[in-house]
Write a structure and sequence with these properties.
Length: about 425
């Protein structure tokens, strides 16, 4: 049996070191003992953007990027998307196991009884300009929840954590719907707790004059999209939640940091960017020229590429199926033709093939959201709604992990050496 250790020879000193390997990793702190001279602080690993650094041990989500595998708590995403509800998926992510019928009923009941927000919240939202970006409003609003629930700072108390978990999952759809209505200048519709989680959210978003005709196919499609986004291990927004949460701030503030990270066009903002890109292309006949401009370095093919998937994103495959069901109800989105042509050409083109660039989850999700009636700048709000259980599960896992401390990366200083301060008159 080979020994699970790594021998490192420091050619600066000729000394060798043996460091343990566990779960395919060495501990970066084990490198600290490797020192060339007294007081140099020991060797560090340099890893901008964490390309090869495991920041935690996690039991929530498993991804095999080469094989295109995604599992929540061991269950394949394909089976969860087929069988589970969104709240059942949230329970699985948060508790680690699928709920029994009683557990699910209790969980749904808890969420249902916390859907209302303080009426001051509507005044808070009114402070935003009529054209405020929905993600800017969402991140401000979720951060503001901490001022309504100061008890949320008791993060060491499991009961308090459960309550904040419920509050977040219950109130996020209400706030997301209010944000939608604010953008449209429509009066807010308050939660109807006789409806299910998705039905209530859709009703709060689209009800006009007390009427909304629910479409079960579209509601299930939205639910599947939320499930597909529910967790994705240590992505940018989840790392933001963990990192900010590691300071022991309340979960509303930590989650609003995740929303801020998700807002960016390289992360959750990509589905919005895909639609903007499709608009710019305008017609199928312009696709080859657009592909050439991407290859010439004039911009990226949005919705393509992924840090961890070097084959087809399994969520993108499932989303294509959902797209068919949705377009059957709503009629074809005219931009679909452009998207399909982009995908066809990119999947055959040496530039994209050699870089292992495949469609990611965002390539088709925007087209579906648009067909459902959501405006482009609202898409990332739906992503946030889906990702919320993952953020909370990861935040709690971080808090319960005795190895975790306040997140504080090191740096390699490359600036000036010490200099004498020059007074203004001499500069
Ligand atoms: N279009 C064209 N070229 C691309 C693209 C793209 N979408 N993505 C990567 N490349 C190229 C890069 O130019 C680079 O080429 P080079 O080696 O010649 O310099 C190579 O592929 C590697 O790219 P990196 O930027 O190093 O890859 P990284 O892992 O850092 O980026 C990312 C991943 C951010 C997702 C990137 O692929 C991208 O910008 N995609 C478009 C935005 C997008 O769709 N984001 C959504 C991600 S999924 C999500 O958040 C749910």
């Amino acid at each position: 049996m080979p020994s699970e250790t790594l021998t490192i020879v420091d050619n600066r000193t000729g000394r060798d070191y043996e460091v343990p390997i566990a779960d395919g990793t060495i501990r970066a702190t084990d490198l600290r003992q490797i020192s060339a001279e007294e007081g140099d602080g020991g060797l560090m690993s340099y890893d901008p953007a964490y390309l090869n650094t495991s920041s935690c041990r996690s039991a929530i989500t498993y991804i095999d990027g080469d094989a295109g595998i995604l599992r929540y708590r061991g269950y394949p995403i394909e089976q969860i998307a087929e069988e589970a509800s969104f709240l059942e998926t949230a329970y699985l992510l948060l508790e680690g196991e699928l709920p029994t019928a009683e557990q699910l009923a209790a969980w749904e009941g808890d969420v249902r009884t916390h859907t209302y927000v303080h009426t001051n919240f509507t005044k808070f939202l009114e402070g935003f300009r009529y054209d405020a970006h929905p993600m800017g409003m969402l991140l401000g609003a979720i951060g503001a929840l901490s001022t309504f629930y100061p008890d949320a700072k008791h993060i060491a108390d499991p009961e308090s954590r459960y309550l904040q978990r419920v509050r977040l999952i219950a109130k996020m759809p209400t706030i997301a719907a209010f944000v939608f209505r604010h953008s449209r200048g429509l009066p807010y519709v308050f939660p109807r707790n006789d409806l299910g989680y998705i039905g209530n959210y859709v009703n709060m978003t689209f009800e006009i004059g007390g009427r909304h005709e629910p479409n079960p196919v579209l509601q299930r499609a939205l639910e599947i999209l939320l499930i597909l986004h529910a967790d994705h291990e240590q992505n940018c927004s989840t790392s933001a939640v963990r990192s900010v949460g590691s300071s022991h701030v309340d979960p509303f503030s930590a989650v609003s940091a995740g929303i801020a990270a998700l807002y960016g066009p390289l992360h959750g903002g990509a589905n919005e960017a895909v639609l903007v890109m499709l608009d710019e292309i305008g017609d199928v006949k312009n696709v080859p020229a657009f592909i050439e401009s991407v290859k010439a370095g004039k911009g990226r093919l949005m919705g393509f590429g992924h840090r961890v998937y070097e084959s087809y994103d399994p969520r993108a495959k499932l989303i294509k199926k959902v797209a068919d069901q949705v377009f059957e109800q709503t009629g074809l989105n005219p931009k679909l033709e452009i998207a399909l042509e982009l995908e066809r050409i990119a999947l055959e083109d040496e530039y994209f093939v050699s870089r292992k660039l495949y469609p990611n989850v965002d390539f088709y999700s925007g087209l579906i959201y648009q067909a459902m009636g959501y405006p482009t700048d609202y898409f990332t709000v739906l992503f946030a709604l889906g990702r919320l259980p993952g953020w909370i599960a990861q935040w709690e896992e971080m808090l319960n992990d005795s190895e975790q401390k306040i997140s504080r990366p090191r740096q390699t200083y490359i600036g000036q050496g010490v200099r004498e301060f020059v007074p203004m008159s001499k500069r």
